[in-house]
Here is the input.
Amino acid sequence: MIKILGYYLFAAFFCLFRIFPVRRDKVFFIATHDDSPEGNAGIVAEALAEREPAFRLFFLTRQDGIHRPIDFFVKKAYHMATSGTIFMDNEFMPMAYTPVSRRTKVVQLWHGTGSIKRIGLDVETGRVARLAARANRRITHLIVNSQRTKEQYARAFGVPEERTYVLGLPRTDRILDEDFIRERRREFFEEYPGLKGKRCILYAPTFRDDEVASPRLELELSRLTEAMREDEVLLLRLHPHVAANFSEEMPGSCRASVRNVSGYPGVTTLLAASDCLITDYSSIIYEYCLLDRPMIFYPYDLQKFRKQGRDFYEDYEHYVPGPVAHNQGELADLWRQGFEWKEKVTEFRRKEFEFLDKNATKRLLELIFCI
Here is the structure.
C-alpha cells in the first residue's frame, strides 16, 4: 500500500508538471537496474552527449527514492514530464499513472540482452501484473536483440510487435569492442595485482526471491577449489543479500583461491577479466558468449525453479551454451576433466544476435533522434 501511495504521489506531481512544454532536447533516463557507464542507459547517455552536446540529460537511478522526497517526487517528476524522450532499463511502476505526452518517446531498453527465464507479464500476476501492463502501455519503442527476442519481449511487455525494434542493445557494442575489453581487463588486474597471470573463473548465480529471508551461497567452495589448478582463482559475483554473509561462509582453506567481487561496480569489466563463467539462469550469458569463452551451467535447483520459480522460455538443458552440472560433484568433475564448449557458444551466438557490428547504439540514435 505504501508503494502504491508513492506511485500516486509521483504521478500527481507528474500530471501537475504537464502544464509545461515538452522539450525535444531534454532526455530523461530511468536507470534503476544498472546506472553504471557500462549499462544500456549509460552508454546511450554518453553517445548522445557526444553527438548532441546541447541536449540536457537527466537521470533517475536506484539511489533515488522517497528518502529524498523533494528530489524524487518533485524534481524527477518535473524532468520526466517535460522530456521529449524517456529511456528505461527496467519497469517503472509509477508510469502506470503518468499520462505521458504524445510528443514524448518512451524507449524500453531493458537490462538484459535476452532471457533464459520468463520475465514481465509472462510471470507477473495480480496487482503487479496489472500495474506493469498499464505502465508498459506508455512504451513507444521496445528495443531487442533478435527476432526470437522480439516475439518473447513483445508478449512479456504487452507491446505490439510493430513497436518492437530489432536493433541490438548498446551494451553489446562494448562487449564486441576488443580494445574496450582489453582496457577493462587491464584496469581490473591493475586493481587486483595479485590476480595478474591467474586464470579467473567468474561465478555469477541468479538471485532467488527466497534468498531475501535466508541468504546463502549454494556452493561448497572447498570442493570446487580442490579441483582447480594453482594458477586459477574463483571470482564471486553475488547478490548483496548473499554477499553480506559471504565472509562468514568462506572456509579459511580456500581463501587464497577465492575473491569476492560482488561489490565491483561494472559487471562488463568482470566479464572481460574472466576466462570462464559459471552461472545458472542469468542473462549475462548473452553478453559473455560474444567473448567466445567457455561457460558452465550450475542449476542446483533446476526442478524447483521450474515448478516454483519463473520457469523458462526454452528447454533449459538443451538451450544453454555449455555443459550442465546438477550438483557440486558434477561441477568439480567437469572442471577437473575439461569439457567441450566452442561449438555450442558459436551456435548460440548465431541464433541470438541479429547484428554483430558494434553499431547498435548508432541505429538506436538514428531511430529515436534521426541523428
Summary: The chain has a mean pLDDT of 91. DSSP finds 17 helices and eleven strands in the chain. The longest helix spans residues 2-16.
